[in-house]
Design goal:
6-stranded antiparallel β-sheet; 33% helix; 5 helices; 6 strands; alpha+beta
Length: 228
């Protein structure tokens, strides 16, 4: 009976071989996964930025088509955002400071921060009207008295989602000559890259980063690799 059976030799991995293979997989994962996560986060931030920028542009375009003034000098303080809100669906008016939505003034020091500093010295840019969109995005307006100026800042992922930092998830745009321009563009209040430096600890840093986003396709990847 035994002679009629064929003897098959079983091939198998040894424990050492399995451990070596798992070790190699672990090393490869450790090298590639962080990069993939960074790319995913960068893509998400960029998509949110472009969507928000487009939303604001579309409102300004529609206002222009309806012959509604885009001249900042024609608006009394803290009124521009109410006109802007009429062109958005399902928008929530959070008042001048955000208290109606969040029970706290969003201009309070320490809520919105500079890019590499836990303080931000331009909180006054966030206190002339705040709108919350259906997806949680916040639009924060600067429309002060006696100054012919309208600035719109966008919190891409909302108040409750950190880091709430200028140049990271908060970007500003300025209405100049009836056109919306990313802050940092020539002619804007904070012109150039001076206040968008990934290494600067200035309490103004981040205010002009919208300009860099527009001209650098890999801005968010560079940001996430540098600013933790």
């Amino acid at each position: 009976m035994f002679n009629k059976l064929r003897y098959f030799k079983t091939n198998a991995f040894t424990l050492a071989e399995v451990l070596i293979t798992l070790g190699i997989i672990g090393v490869v994962a450790a090298i590639t996964i962080p990069g993939l996560i960074t790319k995913y986060k960068a893509h998400r931030l960029k998509s949110q930025y472009l969507k928000s920028y487009s939303t604001i542009q579309q409102v300004f375009k529609q206002m222009s088509m309806d012959d509604v003034s885009l001249d900042a000098s024609t608006y009394e303080a803290k009124t521009f955002y109410k006109t802007f809100a009429r062109y958005l669906q399902g928008v929530t008016d959070c008042g001048s400071y955000g208290i109606e939505c969040f029970n706290i003034e969003l201009r309070t020091m320490g809520i919105y921060k500079a890019l590499r500093n836990d303080n931000f010295s331009l909180n006054g840019l966030l206190d002339d009207g705040i709108l919350q969109l259906q997806d949680g995005t916040l639009l924060l307006f600067e429309n002060p008295p006696r100054i012919q100026q309208v600035i719109v800042s966008v919190d891409l992922n909302g108040y409750y989602n950190l880091p709430n930092r200028f140049g990271y998830d908060l970007f500003s745009f300025q209405l100049i000559d009836e056109q919306l321009k990313p802050m940092g563009t020539s002619g804007t209040l904070y012109e150039g890259d001076t206040y968008c430096d990934f290494n600067s600890r200035s309490s103004y840093n981040g205010i002009s980063c919208a300009y860099r986003v527009q001209k650098e396709s890999d801005y968010f990847i560079s940001l996430l690799k540098t600013v933790k």
